[in-house]
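Dear colleague,

Following up on Tuesday's group meeting, I ran the structure prediction for the two-component complex that the binding team flagged. I've pasted the input sequences exactly as they went in, so you can double-check that nothing got truncated or mislabelled along the way. The structure tokens for the whole assembly follow below. Feel free to forward this to whoever is handling the docking comparison.

Inputs:
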Amino acid sequence: MKQRPASACLRIVSVLFIVGIIAFLVFSGSLTLLRQPVFTSYYENRSLEPIPEYSLAGILDGSYFSSLNTYLQEHAVGRNTLLRWETIMNLNILRRPVVNDVVIGEDVLLARQDFWIYEQDDLRLLVEAAADRIAGHARAAEEYGGRFYYVAVPHQALAFSDDYPPYMQSHEDYYLDAAALLADALQERRVSFLDMWAYFRGNGSLREVSSRVDNHFSIVGALETGRQLLERISADTGRELHYLEEENCHIQWLPNHYLGSRSRKLFDLWPSDERLGIVVMENESQFTRTDRSSRTVGEQISSRVYVLPSSPDETVSYNLYMGGDWGFTEIATDRHELPSILVYGDSFTNPVECLIWQGFDKMYSFDFRHYSEYDLDELIAMYQPEIVVCIRDYEAVLKADGNGQ
Amino acid sequence: MVFSSSAFLICFFPLLLLCYFLLPKRCLSGRNVVLLLFSLAFYAFGGLRYFWLLCVCILTDYLAGIAIDKCTLPKHRKLLLILCITITLGLLGYYKYAGFAAAVAVSLGISISIPEIVLPIGISFFTFQGLSYVVDVYRSDAPVQKNPLNVALYISLFPQLVAGPIVRNTSIAESLRQRDHTLDGFSRGLTRFLLGLGKKMLLANAMGQIADSVFALAGHPSLTASLAWIGGIAYTFQIYYDFSGYSDMAIGLGLLFGFHFEENFNYPYISDSITDFWRRWHISLSSWFRDYVYIPLGGNRCSRGRHVFNLLLVWFLTGLWHGANWTFLLWGIYYGLLLFLEKYPLRSILPKVPAVIRRILTLLLVVLGWILFRSDSVAKAGMYYQALFGGSGFSSSQTVYYLREHSWEFICCILAALPITRVLEKRFLGSGAKPWTRTTARVLSMAFAALVFLLSYMQLEYGGFNPFIYFQF
């Protein structure tokens, strides 16, 4: 019997539909299994699930298969493309206020903050505990005549708190309370405290010193932090540490496209003309640099603090500063008449370290998220630097893990 | 393994199709073996530790069926049935309820240790499915399956193995011996599967994120009334699209291989009474309890007192089936009481209430029930209810955030809960529709399913948030 046109059309479309879907699955599966494994995800900035190791226990309790599923998911061919499409859809079609955990502002990308309310008493306890820890390190430095400085810098949410939608929280009030309590607590414990958030608020430059596409501050913020720190050290020690003044250095902006931590989460789909800058000194000293980290094997020697791109077309990231986070870095300038300095903290120290090493014979830099050979007090006793500086942002200031030890 | 996973979609499923359809149509027994092996592998993917449990259930049900069928004495047949039920429910009782029972005993002052027992995936489903086969054989409602592979396949068939629907042997016994594989059936099955995948990946998961965040705030002052309601509504959508999506996938997969499973959901959120709700929600479970517990107890063909007892017992057991926690028990009793009210004191009043009001009230009662169901404990449920009615204030910026962030999902959840598809199917695919209208409608539905699949696959790659609610059963 001759097939009617409608039925024939339906058959053809059905076949195309079935073949299309099945072919997609077959090719996805085959290519995923046959391709070379990818170890990291550039845009997610993390390691991907490795091929699970076979074990009897894993087979029995199902964990092997669960890990295998995660491996297949993370190594699926076309994954990055699909993630980009998802992000484009959320940004441009569905226009969600938060995409990939990033709050989409008018001209700024911010971190989505969890909703929570705080109790004043709980905050006070946290501040007292943090102040006790910090004071302990200050005393360790003072034992041999050293000086300790604690520098708190504003994180991005504080610089752009007004850019959050009214129904979302920046927790500015929490950090304002924390800052006030911390200042009092550190003063009680005779710890020299430099509150850069108060400083930037005071001179109205908060928005200029913070990045719009990254959680860190900009080179402008780092430079001003370095200046204020050296001013304080100069005033306390009588040493002339004014090499970061305007007449001695200037900022050179790189033409390269800047991929910040926020814009990276959006697969670089959000248009931004923000640039990274480096500070160029009028007179720069020679130095050698040694790095060690729990992530690398052995030591690495170099003679640069900025990891500059090889061409203007290369995209740069915050890793420009010091090459990212290192467990241990030593910069030696071989000028023994100058003091030594020990700096520790999270990533906010990186651009500041690029600047301040100039005025010291040795700069020891530690990031305890990637270093565990000795604790801070042991290192202070070992190196006996004249100056010990901690630089932390307000989001981390009260935390006891990592660099909050 | 779950259907909404990379392992299933890009490995298991294509490989199964290849192995199954490589065998010629006339080799149905070979195809059944392929299905059986893949179904067992599907279950083993969750861990081999409890694989033996599935095998024991299959063996018990097979041997019980054979023995009951061969036995002529009613007394012996009954004994065999009781033995099978005891073994099966004993296994279910141990793995699912031993810890809970021990915790209750401890709370009553009895000094015993509480065992830490891992709940094997799907145990509530495949035990009930196997029992329904044995009882049907006992009642002579279903023919005995002499071929053990058929029993094994019936119980372990992967589309419905770990989360239902609970399939009666009578509905697929014939299909095990003979079934058609048509292009139309395959495309319909694939469409159904992909739409079910979309329900799970695009709707249920998004609602689940909201529900999990909000329910975690029970007892916290930040749980305001608006937030509590949003959380309750989100969970109402999550559980529906999660479970009905899984059922759609199971039914769709069954169609691919020529099996026709019964519908498990029928737009339950438009119900105009609790009675109506339970005719539309998890139909395979409610009909299982009706046929194997309620009716054998006498149903409603007995004194009023006995009827009420039957009702409350069945709903107590229904709650218990869902989980080993007081919240599930109370949830079951909650529905038992509501049904009692509908059947007795409100029987003459309800029909007089306008249908719209009845539907709204029913939905409200259902949402309130889900809050109890979802809560970690009775105490947390109490705190949640308190917040629901203004215990911690009314407004919350977090509510606005969830509505803004997931506005599309909420709109789609509301629309998909309405029988729009049914209306469209009747209009464009019904017998009165012209051939080209039907063809166009089918083509559009396949195109829509393909789009939903692409979005779902994107979401799969994107998310790490992919829990299945009913997997605790």
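Residues 74-107 of chain B form the longest helix (34 residues).

Cheers,
M.
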